[in-house]
Amino acid sequence: MKHALRTIGLAIALAATPACSTLRAASPVPVEASLEQNAYALIGAYALTLDEATALVKNPATPRAVKTALAKAEMVATPAVELVKVAAVAHRRAETAATGAALAHALSQAQGPALALAQLMHK
Q1: Which has the closest alpha carbon to 118: 38, 42, 11?
Q2: CA pair distance 107, 64, nearest whole angstrom
């Protein structure tokens, strides 16, 4: 149940982001959500995913191939999500068109790796 809730949370957060705006999933973030709201939804969902991935890696019953795949996916996803954090803070401080564009770009770049990590955990 715990894993299913985290997966649903990540799916909702990713569905709410601009690059996935064509999805018609139920979302706690309104369609007209700000870039910042979308960014923080992605960051929060990724934190839950990363926590779950860490638990899987620490579990001695998890096959080595799964641990390796999770580690590789995390090495791609974490820097992308960190960039979203930096861009969200910069946009919050300045709220200019340039910081908004940087945040939108960071979100679009982080969605794929974050979702890939979540999907690896549920194969």
Answers
A1: 11
A2: 31
- What's the whole-model pTM score? 0.67
Gap between the Cα atoms of 87 and 90, Å rounded:
5
Residues of the chain falling short of pLDDT 70: 1-32, 123
Query: What is the structure's pLDDT at 92?
Result: 87
Which residues, including other chains, have CB under 8 Å from residue 35's CB and lie 6 or more apart? 18, 88, 91, 100, 103, 104, 107
* Burial call 33-63: b when 16+ CB within 10 Å, e when fewer: bebbbbbbbbbebbebbbebbeeeeeeeeee
Q: Is 85 exposed, middle or buried (0-12, 13-18, 19+ CB in 10 A)?
A: middle
What pLDDT does 44 receive? 93
Residue 46: closest CA among 120, 96, 110, 97: 110
| Phi and psi angles of residue 60, each rounded to the nearest 5 degrees, phi first | -65, -20
Q: Angle at Cα 96 formed by Cα 93 and Cα 100, nearest 5°? A: 90
**Side-chain-side CA neighbours of residue 57 (13 Å):** 16
